[in-house]
Design brief:
single chain; 180 residues; mainly alpha; 9 helices; 69% helix
Length: 180
Amino acid sequence: GLGEHRVSIGSYKPAGNDMRIASELGEAQVEYARSLPDGAEKQTAYKDAEQTYRNLLNQPGLPAASKASILITLADVQGQQPNRVADVRATLLEALAADPGSVGSRLQLAKNYFPQSMFGDAENHFLQVVSATGGANGAPPPGQAKLKADAYYYLSLIKARGGAASREAVEYADQAVRVG
């Protein structure tokens, strides 16, 4: 099975047009890891997928948007493993640094802050997502409506966390429904 080829797969280094193949390899490794019962073999399989994505990042001439996308995927792989919250955040910060205009990186970083009760940081990034996707009254660019709706949804949760829904929480929730 796939597990028997782990060593050779983990050492695969993509070149040129092999980027798509390497990306598909990483996806296959993640699916394989998800199929395993919890334990050492599962964690090793995730580490192999992580290494494949890191190898993708080392390709010369990688566009900033591609690098950010790979880093978001890498953060997702890290998030499948226990006790990797700090690694996930560092990877998402790296994605944002690679492509500061990446709305997806910013949204994922904000979502990382939210469950850790880092509401000020999360709110700041969610507001930047709203701003980057047309602002409060503008239509989002093609393909970004869900990103904007997600940002509004989380903003409504942040504002409502005190118990009773504030006017601001309700407005954000209404915006999430209107946009997405």
